[in-house]
Design brief:
The chain has 103 residues and is an all-alpha fold.
Amino acid sequence: MIQEIIAYKNIVDNIEGLMEKSPYKKNYIIEKVGIPSPTFYRKLKTQSFTPDEVLSIAKILSPEENFMLELKADIEQGKRDIKNGDFITHEQMLAKLKSKNLI
């Protein structure tokens, strides 16, 4: 647990440098995270982002890693759905789409 906390602290300590090395401008990050600009810069200066805000920033700075994590989570959810019998057949799906005039 201590290692994870140290790793998190290192990320927070270096988040401004990570943003500067990224291809994204700070205004874009501010807009996507949804923090008012003055608050964002204050939190950046005092290194007081919440863990959720750090996660949001990390997802913006590392979109490929975020995509892979989401894809893996979706695959695992799909496996659980199949195991629990929570699915419909291809034919049932086609029938649903036809009933909604989508195909």
